[in-house]
Amino acid sequence: MPRLKRRPVTRGGRAAEHRSAAPGLRTSPGALRATIRLRRLIARLRPAIIHANSSRAHAYTVPAACRRWPVVWHARDLAPLGIAGWFLVRGANRVIAISRAVAKSLARHGDPARVTVIHNGIDAESISPDRIQGDRVRAELGLGAGQPLIGMVGQLVPWKRHPWFLEAAARIASAVPQARFAVAGGDLFGDHPDYESELRARARSLGVTERVRFLGHRADALQLIAACDVLLHPTECEPFGRVILEAMALAKPVVAANAAGPAEIIEHSLSGLLVAPGDIDKMAAAVVGLLQRPEERAPIGARAREQVVRNFSITQTVSRIETVYREVARG
């Protein structure tokens, strides 16, 4: 296969991909027009392979490609696909799943042999404690020297389980009164307009309003993670969890649900802590243990970074995707 040349034909990042994770596959009134335009573009470019980088992109690509061009679908969601799953899996020559959990969810829709698991990777050289510090964010939040900060970073959507974070925060604050908490992320598409106000009301009812800061979308999310002493990631249905990799690359201990993507990233007690999904008491106890025994945080953080460098580098991810391309191109 000749040297690979890439030509992106649509825009969209991680947030756009997650919007397609809503139950079923939403389509806009212009979906048919978009499919026709995409078909014309494919006919003009005549690509060796089409890489559909989300479920929504793949839903447009399958009819546009008309089985005349090989398609690789990058599956990034754990949402139920229903009958659309059959259409999507069979419309791809190969499927790249970002985790074993995603691959398992697709198995019921078609031939599992079509699915290859390739975990997301990050640039751990750029995302490192030497390059990214959290001092400015800690000053912004008014934190004193040594005052612990526990963070949750992710879209402000219900499946991320922010109420569990708030309930854990109340328990943590009872044991470590000086602890403070930050919730970063926004409802980027306006699908849940009342969610933040509901969370603020929940924080009031739990008595942690003065301890929890809702920060909205942050362009400096990495600096916020660097400012944290612990990252808490409570959701049990995370397809992968890039933010977990980012925290680990910054040598921050992560407490996460022992399910789906996080369970494939974290080695329990070595590079982070895993707790039973939805067990708020154990979630809080894990964080309290890390706060009360700071001598354990640094070794866990160091091993976490080593694990990211070893197993989750962007170079490895790109190489594995290129291998899939070559296999598909050979037929």
TrEMBL record:
InterPro entries, sorted: Glyco_trans_1 (IPR001296), Glyco_trans_4-like_N (IPR028098)
Residues of the Glycosyl transferase family domain: 138-306
Protein name in the entry: Glycosyl transferase family 1 domain-containing protein
Region (Disordered): 1-27
Domain Glycosyltransferase subfamily 4-like N-terminal intervals: 18-125
Database matches in Pfam families: Glyco_transf_4 (PF13439), Glycos_transf_1 (PF00534)
Family annotation (PANTHER family): GLYCOSYL TRANSFERASE GROUP 1, GLYCOSYLTRANSFERASE
Organism annotation: candidate division KD3-62 bacterium DG_56
Database matches in SUPFAM superfamilies: UDP-Glycosyltransferase/glycogen phosphorylase
CDD domains membership: GT4_PimA-like
GO molecular function: glycosyltransferase activity
